Amino acid sequence: MSSAKNSVKTKTRKRYYRKRIELFRLIDKIKLWPSRTGVLHGIKTIEKKGNIAIITTHCNKTFEVNNSRNSRAARLLRNKIFNKVCGTCKIPEWKLEKFDATRFSRKSGSFLNQTNA
Q1: Which carries the bigger pLDDT value, residue 84 or residue 14?
Q2: In this structure, are residues 76 and 82 in contact, taking their beta carbons and an 8 Å threshold?
Q3: 39-49 and 52-57: which strand pairing?
Q4: Tell me: the pLDDT tens digits for 61-84?
Q5: Which of 14, 22, 61, 101 is the most exposed place for a label (fewest CB within 10 A)?
Q6: What is the rounded distance in angstroms from the CA atom of residue 38 to the CA atom of residue 85?
Q7: Which residue segment(s) compose the domain that 88 sits in?
Q8: Sheet strands (E) in 1-117
Q9: Residue 50 located in a structural domain
Q10: How many domains does the chain have?
Q11: Among 77, 99, 105, 100, which residue's Cα sits nearest to residue 20?
């Protein structure tokens, strides 16, 4: 007899975020970065300096990013456009499933406001 835990797959809950939120808020929450070549990277650190951030991926690539709502990266994250996942970053399967269950809506969803803890 097999246990019920193994036979039932857990469904990831759908998350709704606003479509036109700033890029920095989005990558702070999702921790993924789509490169220009279509590779999805995992983000290790984000250093914000005003309207510019320095992002370091798990494969030790570092680059500067401007905070924009309609940039290429923001569009690719909202529309979930990527060709493959970076093998060096080793993004876990649960994170990809969570990203796949994320929905972006213009009229409803979280603004991803930062709370002071």
Answers
A1: 84
A2: yes
A3: antiparallel
A4: 999 999 988 889 988 998 899 999
A5: 14
A6: 8
A7: 21-102
A8: 15-18, 32-34, 39-49, 52-57, 62-66, 84-85, 102-105
A9: yes
A10: 1
A11: 105
